[in-house]
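Can you please make up a whole protein chain along with its backbone structure tokens because I've never seen that pairing?
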Amino acid sequence: MFIEMVVKGLTLDPLTNMPIVILKDVEEKRVLPIWIGLFEANAIALELEKITTPRPMTHDLMRDLIVGLDAQVTKIVVNDLKNSTFYAVIHLSMNGNQVVVDSRPSDAIALALRSNAPIYVSSEVVNKARSIDVSQENEEADQLKEWLENLKPEDFGKYQM
């Protein structure tokens, strides 16, 4: 089963200063934080803020290549979680054929935003993510769990990338 999600915002992990993209299901019942790289966070932020750059950035180029090949991004799916690493795939439609391409979630999300494609997460990934790191018995994990549980809507976008 897949859960449709939207990008709720970007924030920084208060412990590591690593960017986190926050996905929230369309029913607003579940939240999924995914730690990403700074460059990918910047690419997502540029699209969320609708900031255009003088030259195409990598994800703009990907979108333009897909459109130029008369294809379209039909959806992206965050489909696995192994050893605290998320995995995703990009679903493309081209000439009546379906093509599935392996991707990092951050790249898939940046492309989905540019292509107006839906973002899905497998329910298995959401269930696994509940126990990543925060189930470990240590002070840092407890701090992170407390911070994630207390995130408020006004916290999104609070941090500059």
Summary: The chain has one domain: 2-155. The beta strands are 2-12, 19-25, 31-35, 71-82, 85-94, 97-103, 119-122. Confidence is low (pLDDT under 50) at residues 132-136.
